[in-house]
What we know:
The chain has 2 helices and 10 strands, in the order H-E-E-E-E-E-E-E-H-E-E-E.
Amino acid sequence: MIGPYRTRTLVLTACAWLLSGALPASPLQGSEWKPLRIDDIGVPDETVAFVQFRSKGRLVGHGGCNRLFAEYDANAGNIFVGPVAASRMACAESVMQREVALAQALENARTYLRQQAQLVLFDAAGKPILEMRQTDWD
Length: 138
């Protein structure tokens, strides 16, 4: 049984944490990933594309032509990203199509599975839509 003072301390601490606006860090925070497959289509090795999950729910990346920006929330295997904004440079059509597919996959992701240096994002139906490898993995 928890004593009355310990209960009050616990409740006050929890309230202070909630009121401070401090949220627990996402398990993906501080990591960078290279897309390997987008909707069953392989991403060429030479493609300069990455996704970074930064602090305060900020996602940044590069789709191969343009910089990508979004907000995200990831916790307990669930993820929400979106909407994804991008800079507006023009590139080869194949690069632009892959970039749009990457942004759509990020926005459509609802759950994720992280196993060491591999990250798979799944859509609402449970279909894998984006597979990535961690680039800052030691």
